[in-house]
Amino acid sequence: MRRALITAALAAAALPAAAGATPQPASVKLVKCSIEEHEAAFYGRMQQVPGASRMAMRFTLFEETGGDTSTPVRVPGLRRWHSSKPGVRAFGYRQGFRNLPENASHRVSVDFRWYAADGTELARAKRRSARCRQFVDLPNLVTRITAVTRTKVDGVFRYKAVVSNTGKAAATALPVRLTVDGNVVDTVTLASLAPGEQRSLAIRGPACHRLARLEADPEKAIAESSDADNASELTCAALRNIG
């Protein structure tokens, strides 16, 4: 995955919102998402509540690279609060980001605060934006151990497996590693694996006493849409049942 320092773009000046239909007291929208420029921008907006003199909001950027886990991203200068002028009826702020990495999704969480003239906090809210997806075509490697059988050599077994590419791009020079009971047995290399292609292979190894593990791209050198399904594990009891 391309990784670069994510920077907060210069935000547009915070201005009172134009008159119109009354929206919810607070909201945040994704207003720009450019894969070509690796940029995104989000617009937070809030309305005055009774008794409030001043409003403020703060943005937090989250990144998702696979699965359902969101990780907060530290961006220089992002954690500061943006405050309105006293007495305005609505307050909006546009926050931009540059140098977003490929093959990740980004969204923001915005904290909103309303304050009285003496600085007392009157209300607070939190909103989350839609995602800006920065994905390009990538392979996705999946492994599965299908059987284990004896060979003619005493104490040597044949571990059969299938490696699939469920992604949208080919993978080349693809290493596949077999580990038995925590010990690396062998690593074989597939020259290429096209999108949608499935390849069967067999690796010789010792008898399994606890656990067998097969992993594609064990060093995570190949950029993929997800690394979550690169490895498959089976207990020795499960191996005997399928073998």
A few lines on this structure:
By secondary structure, this protein is mainly beta. The chain has one helix spanning 236-242, and strands at residues 7-15, 26-34, 39-47, 54-64, 71-73, 82-83, 90-98, 105-115, 121-128, 132-133, 141-150, 156-165, 171-180, 183-193, 198-206, 211-216, 231-235.
Protein model, in words:
The chain is an all-beta fold and 243 residues long. Helix content is 3%, strand content 55%. A hairpin with a 5-residue loop joins strand 11 and strand 12. The longest helix has 7 residues. It is elongated, with a radius of gyration of 26 Å. About 5% of the residues have low confidence.
SSE layout and pairings?
Layout: E1 7-15, E2 26-34, E3 39-47, E4 54-64, E5 71-73, E6 82-83, E7 90-98, E8 105-115, E9 121-128, E10 132-133, E11 141-150, E12 156-165, E13 171-180, E14 183-193, E15 198-206, E16 211-216, E17 231-235, H1 236-242
Mean pLDDT across the residues is: 87
Count up the helices: 1
| Principal-axes shape call | elongated
Low-confidence stretches: 12-23
Which labels suit this protein?
243 residues, mainly beta, 4-stranded antiparallel β-sheet
